[in-house]
Amino acid sequence: MPTLIETKDLCKIYNRHKPDELQALSDVAFSIDQGQVAVLKGPSGSGKTSLLSLIGCMARPTSGSIRLADKDVAKLPERFLAELRRDLFGFIFQQFNLMRELSLFDNILLPLYPTEISGKEMKSRADEILRQLELGDRKQQKVKQLSGGEQQRVAIARALINQPEIIIADEPTAHLDRALTEELLTILARLKQNGKTIIIATHDPAIYQQQELIDRSYLMHDGNLLEVERL
Amino acid sequence: MARRLNILEHALSSLLRRKQKNLAIIVVYTLTVATIASVLFLTQSLRSEAVNVLAAAPDIVVQRLAAGRHDLIPIADAEQIRRMPGVGKVEPRVWGYYYDSLKKVNFTLMGVKDSPTNLPLLQGTFPANNEQCTLGKGIAEAYGVTIGDSLVLVDSSNSSKLYQVSGLFIADSELLTNDLILLQEAELRRFFKLPDGRATDLAVEVYNQREVATLAKKIKLALPDSRPIGKTEILHTYDTVFNWRSGIMLTLFASALIAFCILAWDKATGISADEKREIGILKAIGWDTNDVLLLKFWEGLAISLTAFLLGAIIAYLHVFFYGAGLLAPVLQGWSVLFPQFNLTPAIDLYQLFVLALLTIVPYIACTIVPAWKTAVTDPDSVMRS
Amino acid sequence: MPRTRLFVLFITALTLLLAVLLAQGIRQAANPSFSQRAEKKALVATLGLTDLSIWSEARYTRHPSQADLFTPFQDYPGAFDHFPAGSIIAPGQPKPQTTLSFKQRGEQ
Fold it and tell me: pLDDT class for C86, splitting at 50, 70, 90?
């Protein structure tokens, strides 16, 4: 399988030249092949989220390169980055980041709005995903009326609606109990089967101990990244 | 196209989500537009009424000034003016004011000579003798009189006299005759103790309208203590009275605009943490800065267009169906007799267009600009919330 | 796109309503029997009226076009006005215009 994402000497410094300057990443070399599942472990504040947001084209590195399918995206203008986020990535955020006052259905359609996809097509895609995630009968409910597990599934549905190649999940189990974590793992396994590339940041052993699921395992500490040898 | 409609769809659902807040904005905004548009509609139609109707006013009115005050003019002067080439009839007019201390009302008393045969807006007749009078609707209503009833006026010798009402001006002429009382000219002279051989002013007919200004100059030369007032000046007076730049119109206009600015300013400066977070989420899941701006544009347009259209409709109904009932007290000032406005609509689409531009564009700008500041930042902040 | 459709319908309905009102207004203005302009003009001509009878509180508000130059509202720009209507009415043009001129002693 070809290498899908590769970073070299990646540095990110927040609030540069200010008193609260913070080096979040230093010389990070990360790579993942197409169809693989990678896990970033490490305590909070170690730079996992920073790395995910750089890989996910949400921010630009202070220095270093990010190659995405053999293209350097580190210095692309904002509108190309937005396009990449829209077409290539599906994001599952730690806080879900759903719009609580909107219905479930409206929430999962959000990534599709700035595209030329017609309303009909959107609806059929959404219905399909909702069916897979067993949310079909609740689609007109507002997100704030849903339980934590349901919100998690909505966040996953929103990440999948644009049929992304790469799924980025930041602490996806932080707010889930044991049973819901199991459910998430099942979904992730199914996505892997479908050939998706998945990057998960977590410090939940329930995830990073999944030998069959995980192809590569990284450890982050104070902005440095180490690849953990496969067991 | 699909993209624009999709984003419009989201704009609408996000407006509906904050139903109460947005409804409040629409209400305030609509009221502002309705106020301004009412003023525009009202003044525009009053102006057009004045300019159209007073086109039949005397070509020149000649007054006499004595020590800077309006004084009676010798009727002999009429002869001098009549001899000028281009002048038609010169009619001495006798009129004056009367104050009724009981009802605290001012009237205009006017002397007439003979009754016209067919005056459409008159019910009954002009006073045929010294015992009769003809009234405007405002007076008839204030005193509760109608044709056949009697009206008591106290003359300059302090003796009361009874006049029988022989005619009434009907409501459609209210804007012209509301406070008018017509008496026979001879009776009015007696009433005010006006000396014979003098009149209040002279109404001069000029054959060629283009000569009015020249003749006015000639009259001024021939009679240095006179003040000729040309018809164009009369029309000009009303053109400026109801100009949107004048007086209370401006005050109302300005306060409404300021209210609107406060609303817009509040909107512009008050982008909430929630809104910021939402913009962050949208950007993170693949919205471009342009998409966010388009979303805000739709939001602004949806609100401002709704408010503008509603405001204009309310203003139209208010002014032309309900006689500007809410503005009239502002216009009325201390007038005791005040006409009802049964207005003929006069619509200036250009003004309406300018109003639309002045209210819709700034509001949209106020919606977009603060969002733009948030939308250009990298969306990764949303990851760390 | 249910909301978009509703919104477009709503705006179209409002626009149509406004257009109908404006069109009605324009038609009324063009209709002599509604505006009664001819009748009103006949009245103005017969009585020799010069002003609208709107504010009857003072001479210069009842007959703004006829008021003499020294009534307060025409002493503009700085006059305080007793009557509110005076603030609605714009000052008239000071005609006839008088100007002061001076001659030195001995000058012709």
Answer: low
Local confidence band at C93 (pLDDT 50, 70, 90 cut-offs): low
Give how far Cα A80 sits from Cα of A75, A88, A182, B4, B80, Å: 10, 11, 36, 19, 89
C101 contact B CB<8A: no
Q: Which residue among B184, B202, B229 closes a domain?
A: B229
Question: B154-182 pLDDT, tens per residue?
Answer: 888 888 899 999 999 988 888 899 999 99
Chains in contact with C, counting 3 or more C-beta pairs less than 8 Å apart as contact: B
Q: What's the pLDDT band for B249 if we cut at 50, 70, 90? A: low
* C-alpha gyration radius of chain C: 25
pLDDT tens digits, one per residue of B41-82: 888 888 899 989 999 999 999 999 888 788 999 999 999 999
Q: Which chains touch A (3 or more CB pairs under 8 A)?
A: B
Give me the mean pLDDT over the B100-104 stretch.
81
Helix (H) or strand (E) holding B252: helix B247-269
- Say how many CB pairs under 8 Å bridge B and C: 232
A23 Cα distance to chain centroid: 22
Chain B residue nearest residue A51, CA to CA? B380
Find which of C50, C60, C95 to mutate to test the B interface (most B CBs within 10 Å of its CB). Answer: C50
Number of domains in chain A: 2
Domain with A145, as residue range(s), is 97-163
- Identify the burial level of B349 via C-beta atoms within 10 angstroms of its C-beta, where 0-12 means exposed, 13-18 middle and 19 or more buried: exposed
B17, B277, B377, B380, best to mutate vs chain A, most A CBs in 10 Å: B380
Residue C79 has pLDDT above 70, yes or no: no
**Are B78 and B200 members of one domain?**
yes
In a domain, C102, yes or no: no
CA of C100, closest CA in chain B: separation in Å? 16
**CB atoms near residue B152 (< 10 Å):** 10
Chain C residues inside the 8 Å CB shell of B315: none
In a domain? residue B236: no
- Minimal CA–CA distance to A107: which of A159, A174, A52? A159
Same-domain status, B219 and B301: no
What was the pLDDT predicted at C16?
A: 97
CA atoms within 13 Å, Cβ hemisphere of A56? 33
Distance from CA of A227 to the nearest CA of B (A): 24
- Residue ranges making up the domain that contains B149: 58-229
d(CA A200, CA A217): 10
* Kind plus residue range of the DSSP H or E element containing B143: helix B137-143
- Write the CATH number for A193: 3.40.50.300
ipTM of the complex: 0.91
Q: pTM of the prediction?
A: 0.85
Does A198 or B367 have the greater pLDDT score?
Answer: A198
CA distance A231 to chain B (A): 31
> Do A128 and A202 lie in a common domain?
no
Which of A110, A115, A170 lies closest to B3 in CB terms? A115
Segment B123-143 mean pLDDT: 90
Q: Which residues of B touch C29 (CB under 8 A)?
A: 48, 344-347
Three-state DSSP string of C15-78: HHHHHHHHHHHHHHHHCHHHHCHHHHHHHHHHHCCCCCCCCCCCHHHHCCCCCCCCCHHHCCCC
**Looking at beta carbons, which residues of chain C come within 8 Å of B234?**
50-51, 65
In a domain? residue C8: no
Nearest CA in chain B to A94: B383
pLDDT class of C88 with cuts at 50, 70, 90: low
CA distance B268 to chain A (A): 22
Same domain flag for A141 and A189: no
